[in-house]
Amino acid sequence: MQKDHLIGDLYEAAIRQEDFLDALQSTTEAVGATWFHMFSWDPVNACPRFSVYSPGIDWDPIITRYEQYYGALDPRRNLVERAPAGTLVCCQDHISERDVAQSEFYQDYQIPTAGLRYLMGTRLTRPGSSETLLGLLRASGRRPYSDEERETAASLIPHLHRAINLWQDAKALHRDAALGTELMEQLDLAVFALDKEGRVVFSNQAGEALLSAGTALRLRHGRLAAPHAPDNEALLAAILRVARSRRGESMALRNPAGASHDLFLSIAGIPGQTLTTFGSASVLITARTRGKTPLVTARQLQQAFGLTPAEAAVAEALIEGTSPEDYANTKGVSPNTVRYQVRAILSKTNSRSQVKAVSTMLWVLSQNKAD
Q: Which CATH code for domain 188-292?
């Protein structure tokens, strides 16, 4: 019964976000461990990509030493990394007391500084992301883990795996929701959520105002429509492509007079397995009208993301709604060169798509402006 209660608490807290680490700590203590440490290791730089540990303790100085030096000496990490994903690894099965006595990691750091001795650990996979290493740590002075504790921990690993992935997904969702709110308020973006048939299921206040104006974007039979037939056909086709492929696209719509492109759209797919506040939505569209001044400048992009001048110019064009192909044609440069620069922008903004990169750049720079 206690185990079922722990599992239920983990899943509920993963969605609520605010008390997930407390629920994870309760599970840690239920299997006889003292604290937990969860991180993703970067083998290139020999340090964690992210690091989360038990709430209520100040481990920052200890973790800093681990990241800067001792993490590379940790024999337990290698054991967990080499084991099959989801397998419980107990250091007491592999590291003897003699090994501990001769280990710089244990004698100079783990026991005197962290106050820890035994570990049960596992490697948790995450689709499309780096693996997570979870360590359940027992304070020095206590006995090794018992068979019963190990059996209980092993039975909880599948639930810990799913709950941690759910927590990370929900965390990203909360972050993206905050991102969207800030962008709506600070950049006056119109936002529309569409179902798989292209029908609008949500629009924010700026979106409602845009539709009411009926200039560059309208609502026909529940679907978004452009005033010019070619633009409208291109818009509907782009929505259907994104709904099927989940690959983001961007496009510009002309004003009713057809003289210029006054509305810039970013069209992104909402992953089918992702929780969303938009219900049945599968496509998210953000729309921005042309302003008198640019949203950001190339110089700001250089400073914020370490872009080269050429990359920053391409990034500025993407934000303005210009496709890489159009940019290459306008500037008279090779499309391959621009594609290479786009890949560099994705890398430096830690994005997988142009839509995500644009959102990230606008988000970071809008926060800087708010400061």
A: 3.30.450.20
